[in-house]
Amino acid sequence: MNLNYNFMIVNFLINKKILLIMIRLFFFCIFVPFFNSIYFNKKIKFLFFYLTSYLINFFVFLHSKNHEKIDIFLLFLNQIFIGCLMGLIVQCIFSSIFLIGEIISSLLGLSFFTIFEKDVSSNSLFLSRFLNIVVILFFLSFNGHILFLQMFIKSFQLLPLKLCFLNYNYIFSIVKFSSFIFSYSLLISIYFLFPILMLHILFFLFMRIMPDIFFVSCSVPIFFLLGMFLLIFFLPVIKIYLIYFLKKSLFFVIFFLKKFKIFI
Predict the structure, then answer these.
(1) Which controlled-vocabulary keywords does the entry list (predicted)?
(2) Model confidence at 257, in pLDDT bands (50, 70, 90)?
(3) What is the number of structural domains in the chain?
C-alpha cells in the first residue's frame, strides 16, 4: 500500500510531459556558463529544472498521450537533440568572448597570465575569464535571462513535443550564425590588433635602420604599456560593441526559429 502511495505521488509530481520538458531544459542548460558549473549544487539544479518545467508545463501541449515504448524512447532522444542544439548556440556566443580575450592577451603579452579553472580542469587566460564575467553582467543587465526563458518557451511552439526532424535550412542557419559571432569577435579585437601591428612594423624598421641597437629587450614593456592604455581607452567602445553583440545574438536565437519548418 505504501509503495502504491509513493508511486502515485511520483506520478503526480513528474508526469510524462514534465519529464520531456526537463530533458530538453537539462541538455539546454548544461551549455550555459552558469548552470554547467560544478560549484552549482546538484539538488538546487534539479529543483530549478523541476520547478521551471512544472511552470512551462501549463503552456506546452503533448500531441499524443498514448505513445508506444519505442515512440517514447525516440521522443526522449528528440528532446535531447533539440536541447543540445539550442545549448550549442548559446555556447557559441560565450565562446566568442573567450576568443576575444585570447586575441587581446596574446597581443598584450599576457599569455602567461593564466588561472586554473576547476570546471574544465585546465588553465585559461585571465583576461578571457575577466571578459566572460563582464559579458555575463551585461547579459543580466538587459534581462538576457528572461529572453532565454522566452526563447525556451517559444521553442515548444515551434518544436513541439512530438517526433519532428530538423531540415537542412535550420542547421545551415546555425552555421551562419556561428560564423557571424566569431567574425564579430575579431572585429572587436581589431581595436588592439591594428595599433600593435603598426608598432611591430615600426620596431622592425628601427631594427633594419639601426641593427646595433637591441630593441627586443625594450619592446616587451612597451607593448604591455601600450596594450594597457588601449584597453583603458577603448573600454567604453568595447562595452557598446559587447552589448550590441549580445543583443543581436539573443534576438537571432529567438527569432531565427520562426523560419524553421517542421516535417514529420
Answers:
(1) Cell membrane, Cell projection, Cilium, Flagellum, Membrane, Transmembrane, Transmembrane helix
(2) low
(3) 1
Torsion of CA 227, 230, 235, 236, to 10 degrees: 180
> Length of the chain, please?
264
- The share of the chain scoring above pLDDT 70, in percent, equals 62
pLDDT of residue 192: 73
Dist. CA 214–CA 250, nearest whole Å:
50
Place of cell 523541476: 50
Kindly calculate the radius of gyration of the chain based on its CA atoms and give it in whole angstroms.
Answer: 24
Q: pLDDT value at position 161?
A: 73
| pLDDT confidence tier of residue 264, bands split at 50, 70 and 90 | very low
In the numeric block, which cell numbers belong to residue 56? Answer: 512551462
CA torsion 133-196-114-131 (nearest 10°) is: 0
3-state secondary structure of 263: strand
> Structural domain of residue 207, as residue ranges?
2-259
How far is Cα 135 from Cα 137, in angstroms, rounded to an integer? 5
Distance, in Å, from the CA atom of 260 to the CA atom of 156, rounded to the nearest integer, reads 13
Q: Which amino acid makes up residue 255?
A: F
Please tell me the distance from the alpha carbon of residue 134 to that of residue 117, in angstroms, as a whole number: 17
Assess contact for 142 and 243: CB atoms under 8 A. Answer: yes
Quote the cell numbers at residue 144: 538576457
Residue 264 inside a domain? The answer is no
> Each residue of 187-218: pLDDT tens digit?
777 777 777 778 777 777 877 777 666 666 66
Give dist(CA 200, CA 202) in Å, integer: 5
Report DSSP state, residue 197.
H
Name the 3-class secondary structure at 1. coil
